[in-house]
């Protein structure tokens, strides 16, 4: 009786931790749609709060980017840009320079460590 009780507890613990790890290891793909010379790309950028949103979106106030909207809930950013003036790679680098990890680049470590405490998210290795 005691052994079966421990087996059930072990199974439940395994199921809970397996579900948690699965959610964190999901890969989110970048998607891009191009129309009339403008591209709209959507990709994941890690962060936490409204201050993160301001910093992330602020890093994209550059020539060629016409719109940037990062969601605190989904951690996804939607960027509209002129492909003749800026590339998606440069956009993702701009975000990393201000300390935020995205699908392609890890945020600058020094800049990340200087972010306000509420903006320091759990970084992936």
Q: Which fold name corresponds to the CATH topology?
A: Alpha-Beta Plaits
Which descriptor suits the 3D outline? globular
Amino- and carboxy-terminal Cα gap:
42 Å
The count of domains is 1
List the SSEs and their pairings.
Blueprint: H1 2-25, E1 31-35, E2 38-44, H2 50-58, E3 65-70, E4 76-82, H3 88-97, H4 109-113
Antiparallel strand pairs: 1-2, 2-4, 3-4
Explain briefly what this protein structure is:
With 125 residues, this protein is of the alpha+beta class. The chain is built from 4 helices and 4 strands.
Tell me what you see in this structure.
By secondary structure, the protein is of the alpha+beta class. It has one domain (31-119): 2-Layer Sandwich (Alpha-Beta Plaits). The protein is 38% helix and 20% strand. It has 4 helices and 4 strands; from the N terminus they run H-E-E-H-E-E-H-H. The protein has helices spanning 2-25, 50-58, 88-97, 109-113; strands at residues 31-35, 38-44, 65-70, 76-82. The protein has a 4-stranded antiparallel β-sheet with strand order 1-2-4-3. A hairpin with a 5-residue loop joins strand 3 (65-70) and strand 4 (76-82). It is globular and about 40 Å long. The chain starts with a helix and ends in a 12-residue tail after the last helix. The relative contact order is 0.16. The model is unreliable at 6-25 (pLDDT under 50).
